[in-house]
Amino acid sequence: MNTGSTAPPIDDYILGVDDAELHRLGLQHRIWSRHAMDAWERIGVGPGQTVLDIGCGPGFATIDLAMMAGPGGKVIAVDGSENFIQHLQARARLEGLENIDARIGDAQKLDLAPGSVDRAWARWVLCFVENPEAVVAGTAKALKPGGAFAVFDYFNYTAVTLAPRSEIFTRIVQATAKSWTDSGGDPDLAGRLPAMMAAHGLEVRAIRPIVRTARPGSLLWRWPESFFLNWTPKLVAKGVITQDEHNAFHEEWAKRSKDPNSFLCTPPVLEVIGFKPGA
Ligand SMILES: C[S@@+](CC[C@H](N)C(=O)[O-])C[C@H]1O[C@@H](n2cnc3c(N)ncnc32)[C@H](O)[C@@H]1O
């Protein structure tokens, strides 16, 4: 395993890079791994390939991709967080995986040899960076002819709904989207992605929405729960919501968690797949 850390860490990722966020990302990967696996099959991730995991976080998907690439292939995993990259390196050692090149770096400044990557993957990263087009440009350049780039990202994030509707839930979602936009991100990012891919020479072959319904008591219900438990105190600290709104939200969430007739429609995720012509 290459442990090369090529750049200073990026500390301003809006959701934070602490251990609570790291554990949330682990739960999130388990809940979404079936969908990721489908996408990887569609783009043909396989043995012997060089796979790029952009904004890999603690590397929960990276580990799966490294197993798919096998000893004859490798995963280049890039993230801005030192804590997350160190976690990935420790996990790789534990799993006996020697084909992961984990790097601290800025996804907007990918510095990879042109035509050196077979497959690329970015999940919930482009919506957080100020210049997503730079990520797409760097990835398109790094792909080999015939290579593919699969992205999972949000479109129309504020469509996430607690049913029956809840005023305080809607308020927290609007505050989330605002603070995200204020920090340079885009809760609607995936809507701009096909144009960005096309501008950098990728042929967009799929745009597929994924919306799921979470019911109290299910594993999927724990996805929004773990997000909001971690996130709403940060919204209070940022001055975006009041402590009273935070408390009202948590009361409402606790009540809904015991109501079998409540459900939540997840924020729409778009799977966008672009291929580089040639080969
Ligand atoms: C929601 S997490 C997703 C992590 C991972 N892709 C996954 O699906 O589990 C977003 C990740 O993007 C990383 N990130 C944000 N801005 C970045 C940047 N400019 N360059 C590299 N990584 C960045 C964060 O550190 C974080 O790990």
Overview features:
Rossmann fold; three-stranded antiparallel sheet; 8 helices; binds S-adenosylmethionine
Record the SSE blueprint.
Blueprint: H1 19-43, E1 50-54, H2 60-69, E2 74-79, H3 82-95, E3 100-104, E4 117-123, H4 132-142, E5 143-154, E6 161-163, H5 167-182, H6 193-199, E7 203-210, E8 213-214, H7 222-237, H8 243-257, E9 263-265, E10 269-275
Parallel strand pairs: 1-2, 1-4, 2-3, 4-5
Antiparallel strand pairs: 5-10, 6-9, 7-10, 8-9
The structure holds S-adenosylmethionine (SAM).
S-adenosylmethionine (SAM) binds next to helix 1, helix 2 and strand 2.
Order of helices and strands: HEHEHEEHEEHHEEHHEE
Mean pLDDT: 95
| Termini separation | 29 Å
Which quaternary structure do these chains form?
Answer: single chain
Order of strands in the sheet with the most strands? 3-2-1-4-5-10-7
Overview of this protein structure:
The chain is globular. The longest helix is centred in the N-terminal third of the chain and has 25 residues. With 279 residues, it is an alpha/beta fold. It has one domain: Vaccinia Virus protein VP39 (Rossmann fold, 3-Layer(aba) Sandwich). Helix 1 packs across helix 7 and helix 7 packs antiparallel against helix 8. The mean pLDDT is 95. The strands form 2 sheets. Strands 3-2-1-4-5-10-7 form a 7-stranded mixed beta sheet, sandwiched between helices. Strands 6-9-8 form a 3-stranded antiparallel beta sheet, with no helix packed on it. Strand 1, helix 2 and strand 2 form a beta-alpha-beta unit. The structure holds S-adenosylmethionine (SAM). The site of S-adenosylmethionine (SAM) has 23 residues, from helix 1, helix 2 and strand 2.
